[in-house]
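Run: sequence + iron/sulfur cluster -> complex structure.
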Amino acid sequence: MITVLNQTVASKKKPWQIELSQAKLSLKELLDYCQLPMDNTFIDHNDFVIKATKNYLSCIQKGNPKDPLLLQILPTIEENKIIEGFSNDPLQEKSQNPQTSIVHKYNNRILVVATGSCAIHCRYCFRRHFPYEQNRHSTKQWLKTIDYLKAHPEVDELIFSGGDPLSLADSTLSLMINDLENILTIKTIRFHSRIPVVLPSRVDQDFLNIFKSCTKKLIMVIHSNHANELNSAVKQACLSLHEHNFTLLNQSVLLKTINDDSRVLIALSHRLFDCNVLPYYLHLLDKVQGAAHFDITIARAKQIYTQIQANLSGYLVPKLALEEPNESNKTIIM
Ligand code: SF4
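>> structure
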């Protein structure tokens, strides 16, 4: 039975919803919080505004303009440079968008762009120009997604992405998970979310209860780039997810001046393991316009990776990968 999304639940906002609703910041507010002076290399970006949760901000070292967490959210004039080889749709997802809100790139799995909303705006995001407006998720779209799954029995995994799927209301997520329970060809439900890292209060009991009777395999790929992001609240959220049958994996992006250093990535792997999360992918940057200043060469990436391999047990070493448009799988570099 298909249920209806977006039911209005007359209830008070939860702490995570309040924190999420307060995540937009002006450049001045961000700099004031970080106790930093205005600089003419910083910009107030109108199309991709500054967004960060209180939890994430609390992990930034005040007074440090090079803080690796700050650099992930601070817009600079570098974003306005048009760089050859960088585009608005680096993975050419528009051509793999068979119907609104679905990306079907790999044979056995589809990606559902469940929402355009995120709890943080990462300046390197490869979907920063994604046409979310044209891919707005709705009850109608979700019903079409269910029809699509019925017509494609080869799809055994559904990936909720976004935006950030954990920004959806519990009622919406719950209805989706219930509907998927009836699609027998779906064996695995995977979430790609940065919310356990930036808004760990979202992983509350109501959220966990949604999955109580779910019979599918559950995977949560958190997206953390630096060990400083993984404070005790994040660790608790990860442990709770693990206790509720989620397999936890991490995907990082290799970012210049943020984590392009083997010591930083080794510390990240250790901290992830503390949180019951296994390192999964270390991605080269997707070449999206506005993010070229985060890019590093493949040669440098290989150098860093060799140092990681030499200093970590194999299970703590993520795969070094990049994604290329129209390829049937990720390209594993090492
Ligand atoms: S989709 Fe992910 S990487 Fe992009 S802004 Fe949202 S949280 Fe950041």
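>> summary
Residues 298-311 form the longest helix (14 residues). The two ends are 45 Å apart (CA to CA).
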